[in-house]
Known about the structure:
- This protein is α/β, with parallel strands linked by helices.
- It has one domain (3-423): ANL, N-terminal domain (Rossmann fold, 3-Layer(aba) Sandwich), CATH 3.40.50.
- Helix content is 32%, strand content 23%.
- It has 14 helices and 25 strands.
- It has a nine-stranded mixed β-sheet. Strands 9-6-5-3-4-10-11-21 form an eight-stranded mixed β-sheet, with helices on both faces. Strands 19-20-22-23 form a four-stranded antiparallel β-sheet.
- Strand 5 (123-126), helix 6 (128-137) and strand 6 (143-146) form a beta-alpha-beta unit.
- The longest helix is centred in the first third of the chain and has 17 residues, at 51-67.
- It is globular.
- The mean pLDDT is 94.
Amino acid sequence: MDLREHIDQSYRASVAGMDIPWMLGQWAEKQPEKICLIWRPFTGEQQSWTYRELFDAARRLAAGLKNRGVNTGDFVFIHMDNSPEFIISWYGCAMLGAVAVSTNTRCVARDLSYFEEVVEPVCALTQPKYAELIRASCSHLKFIAVTDTDSGEPREDVDESISSIDAIPFDELPGNKPIDLSRPDPARNLSVQFTSGTTSRPKAVLWTHGNGIWAGKTSAQHYRLREDDITLIYMPLFHTNAQGYSTLSTHWSGGTIVVQPKFSASRYWQMIMEHDVTWASMIPFAIKAIAGQPVPDHKMRLWSLGARVPEMEAMFGVPTLGLWGMTETLTQGTVADPDHLGPPGTIGRAAPGYEIELRTPDGSLCGPGEQGHLYIRGVRGVSLFKEYYRNPEANESSFDENGFFDTGDIVRSDEDGWLYFCDRDKDMLKVGVENVAASEIETVIMQTGLVGECAVVGQ
């Protein structure tokens, strides 16, 4: 066994004996009455679940799926906006050993039909406003289960809607008795998320339970999360950010998630103050939306952001942690340290557990200040995704002979080793003999003050 194989084996050992049911079950045993999920709908009353309640709800849903013919290894569509049913469904699939396929709710019919073709799901769990679309797009499902609200928004016609597509109410799905769990298996398939597919058909990114454990454990370490940490989740749960960065990291560390249907500028500080939120994953759009509002005396110690922005820190009194990651890396592949945030604009440095290289087009390594393609190496099925499901061509082309994954991103390093995101490779424009990033042009346009938002594309 060579050194590379020894290192890979040690990373596999780091998740041995662990899977997602084990993770949630640990807290259900250690602190069964601790609140782990708070649901704050825009309509209706707040709801909450303890670790024991969420653990049991997921196991009962798993039992109900099994009773209806869903088996270990089967794929299950979860086509929902943020809701407690989403979280229970995702964990329920994990308890059964089924594979949760969380699909973007902005997908159109042709997308869903393509997703069905790729993963061949046996059933779909969805909400009233998407039920007819699911039925029309997916022709090989054993059944469709539909919730009674759209992320808390009541639907008077829900019974008729369920009947018209021959679906079943979601509330009738859980079994009376929680399912018995099998021995933890980190190699078992856990979930699928489809990439955006900007220049090709979307690819099905397959995670193992080991990937899920790595996402939760490593994100929690990057953020230094503890049992008393509370986060607000408004970003879509079907995406890696909300799943890995926020939910799994918090539930790995025994904390609490506060979930909203979507972002609300008018409710943001209200949620922060009412629930003593200590950190949140943020995006520039959300920060711009709350700019100008009075900033209360909050307990926020961290905003997880794409880059460090000192101006925002001064405005809101919250440190901004620069980072970079993607669905294929599960968590942050580069990240700053909460105590050493680095210079403005940085995305940090290579995170523990990953190796990175910045390469020029001819494959040589970049020097300081030179933009290059970001390649990252980890362990497949542990610190990197297992594979693009049923896509051997993409798997072959995405990794080089040394196991480095081509991220498709352009990054540079300064003299001190701090990293900075430049652009997506697909957004690099050929101007004469020079490569120019679309984001560079966008920045210049924005600096004029003549426009509020812009996007530059090549013609």
